[in-house]
């Protein structure tokens, strides 16, 4: 496809992460050949049934240019979410960037909670228990893998 806009003006290095169960952070860099006055705007659509929404809380760089967005109350659906970043400048047309992302693939999991350790010195054993971390995309028990590092003092 032929993209309208100046070559090298679209954003680069777009990435998003979901953390603390319902927060999402997306960041990008300005296109290397974008005019200095270029401002970028992020729109996203959680699924085809929902309407496209603009970012409400932009992250800005020292030149007041939007370089990211913080989303609150994000829930993960089954469909890929659609992200679109377009730009505007008084000097030239800016190319847009878009991407479909499976939100569950970008979730950074919380650590396990309520960790307890009970050791029995006579039997020379310990029982370690914990609750699985909360995740935003499912109430079902998923297959978690845990790694325990035990350091003897």
Automatic annotation (TrEMBL):
Keywords, alphabetical: Glycoprotein, Membrane, Receptor, Signal, Transmembrane, Transmembrane helix
Membrane topology designation: Single-pass type I membrane protein
Domain named Type I cytokine receptor cytokine-binding: residues: 13-106
Domain of life of the source: Eukaryota
Gene Ontology CC, one term: external side of plasma membrane
GO terms assigned for molecular function: cytokine receptor activity
Lineage summary: Eukaryota, Metazoa, Chordata, Craniata, Vertebrata
Cellular compartment(s): Membrane
PROSITE patterns: HEMATOPO_REC_S_F2 (PS01356)
Gene3D superfamilies referenced in this protein's UniProt entry, alphabetically: Immunoglobulins
Species in which this protein is naturally found: Rhodinocichla rosea
Name the record gives this protein: CSF2R factor
